[in-house]
Design brief:
The protein is mainly alpha-helical and 194 residues long. The protein has helices at residues 2-35, 57-67, 89-97, 115-125, 137-147, 164-172, 176-179; strands at 186-187, 192-193. Strands 1-2 form a two-stranded antiparallel ribbon.
């Protein structure tokens, strides 16, 4: 019985410490993006980052347009039938002009963005090259991102919706000053890398 209790205690401590690190990186990444003016700064009230919420395609487009330093016009051409002249239209138009996205009938701005879509846009925004070129583009981007240490996951769930903290972390990890911070420790499945 003592052995079982000791094992359960050890597992609880390990589980808690792993998730404490994860929460720490989630908020650290959000604050990092805010420090670069890619997202609104909520460092004094981090719950406003809404890290566990899903993120829409229009919200993601604004962040990634800021990351790529795209020229954003003040007017909107309404190149997509479902994109009205609202705050997010100009970011979608900028991404279209920069060939981040293709012209289509609809953009689906209020749909949640998938992890693979985030990666494709991030690779374009940060000018990263895919390491894989198969017939499944989603796997190519997710596996390439894993190889770049942008994410701790491979292509297994590439069509799942991205949540805000995940987007913040993968974007932050694409910047060397974020990765070179002495307080940052990157964990992979097998090894702890400092």
């Amino acid at each position: 019985m003592r052995k079982l209790l000791a094992i359960l205690t050890l597992l609880t401590i390990t589980f808690t410490s792993v998730f404490a690190f994860t929460d720490q990186e989630q908020f650290r990444a959000a604050n990092y993006l805010a420090s670069k003016s890619f997202i609104k700064d909520y460092h004094t009230n981090v719950k406003e980052y809404r890290i566990w919420d899903s993120i829409t395609r229009k919200e993601s487009m604004k962040i990634l347009a800021n990351v790529a330093a795209l020229k954003v016009e003040t007017t909107c051409l309404s190149s997509f039938k479902d994109v009205s002249d609202d705050w997010w239209c100009k970011y979608i138009e900028a991404a279209l002009k920069a060939w981040f996205i293709k012209q289509s009938d609809k953009f689906r701005p209020d749909d949640n963005i998938t992890k693979a879509e985030v990666m494709k846009l991030l690779f374009k925004a940060r000018n990263l090259e895919k390491k894989y070129n198969t017939w499944i583009w989603q796997e190519d981007y997710m596996n390439s991102a894993f190889n770049y240490w942008l994410t701790d996951e491979t292509a297994k769930d590439y069509n799942s919706d991205a949540v805000r903290w995940w987007l913040f972390v993968v974007i932050s990890r694409s910047f060397t000053d974020y990765l070179n911070d002495k307080n940052y420790i990157l964990y992979s499945d097998e090894v702890k890398v400092k």
